[in-house]
Amino acid sequence: MNSRAWKQSRIPLLLVAFMVMAIIGVIQSFRLPSEERQVTVGVILASSLADRGWNEGHYSSLLHACQGHGCRLILREFVPEKQSELHTAVEELIQDGAQAIFLTSFGYGNYVSGLADRYPGVAFFSISGKGNAKNSTYYFSRLYQARYLAGIVAGAASRTGVLGFVAGMPNPQTNRNINAYAKGIRRANPEAKLIVHFIGSWDDEQKERKSVASMAAEGADVITYHTDKPYAIREAEARNLFSTGYDAQYEQYSERFLTAALYDWDVVYEKVLGDYLSGRVNMSQGYWLDMEEKGVRLSELSPLVSEQTKALVDAEYQRIRREGVFTGVIYDNKGRLRCDEGERISDRQLFNGMEWFVEGVAVHD
After folding, report:
1. What gap in Å lies between CA 304 and CA 257, rounded to an integer?
2. What's phi and psi for 229, nearest 5 deg?
3. Does residue 126 or residue 25 have the better pLDDT?
4. CATH number of the structural domain spanning residue 170
5. Residues 99, 41: contact at Cβ < 8 Å?
6. Do 106 and 223 lie in a common domain?
7. For the chain, which terminus, N or C, has the lower number of CB atoms within 10 Å?
8. pLDDT per residue over 271-316, tens digit each?
């Protein structure tokens, strides 16, 4: 074999070797954990780790997963959704040895790409779908599935056909839950209306209680919320209104508390952290666990929920397993067709692009 032919025959082997080395380089850039040392995991919270709400749910479940895998968990709490404060918290965690950092508030996603680029050896997990760095990804649960079912319960229970939704701030996560809830309401009561108040904060007891009072004055007899704490439910209870819960359930209420759309962060963190530690994590794909994967669920129904409503919830659960929540003909609240017969709104649109509200939603100041 002449020299030229010999070189040509080795080209494919050289290409394979180059690709293998490149893959190894990428993997090493994530600083995947070694079995020979304890892995340190960081978590950043927007409020207190003991708030009996959103932040406590994330912290306690991640702590449980870390304990199960022998990891060390370190945290920074009360970190605003602002670039400077977030960067400082991340730097402190990394200085303390964090190899993977979980960003648990939606607004943190605005800065995750910059953080990931700045610290290429750290894995970043954000509940926001933003960012496309090779060492960052998103994780979440499809709460909107349980919200849809809770909406059916709420719509069936309403006597006035007017329901209220106290929301923190508009973003795709909040909006898709409002829309799923409204679709469920109108599945049970096609003429019902959902009043939405955005209060501009994830945690403001005075504004949330005031919103419930305002909605009640407009005729709302079923209340739900999408903020960090259940102030809206407490106000609904005080006013003898029906309500449905969200996120987690730490308190016992009257039978007027009809049900709740709940995350199971234990399942989510076990899956995501387990994949990271084993090297199975796919940073380009992300995680969005559904009801089938036990990432979300509907809580026990109140005794006040009728057998007819229970049967409708069961039937609709089976339907959305096959078809999804946002399928078929969907109009927004301005009369624009958003989804047609035989169509389905894509996951990409649901996660990052839902800036509109479905028919039957009225956003009030």
Report:
1. 9
2. -130, 155
3. 126
4. 3.40.50.2300
5. yes
6. no
7. C
8. 999 999 999 988 888 899 999 999 999 999 999 999 999 999 999 9
CA angle 129, 105, 182 (to 5 degrees): 70
pTM recorded for the entire structure: 0.85
- Domain shared by 163 and 284, yes or no: no
What is the separation, in whole angstroms, between the first and last Cα of the chain?
82
Q: List pLDDT tens digits, range 7-57.
A: 455 545 545 444 545 444 444 445 555 545 789 999 999 999 988 888 999
Is residue 209 a contact partner of residue 164, using CB atoms and an 8 Å limit?
no
Cα–Cα distances in angstroms (integers) from residue 214 to residues 3, 197, 209, 221, 238, in the given order:
86, 9, 9, 11, 14
For residues 295 and 273, is the Cβ–Cβ distance under 8 A?
Answer: no
Residue 119's domain comprises: 40-141+266-289
Write down the pLDDT at residue 33: 58
Find tokens 């996560």 and name the residue. Answer: 173
Please give the DSSP secondary-structure letter assigned to residue 168.
Answer: S
Number of domains in the chain: 2
Phi, psi of 225 (to 5 degrees): -155, 165
53 residue type, one letter: G
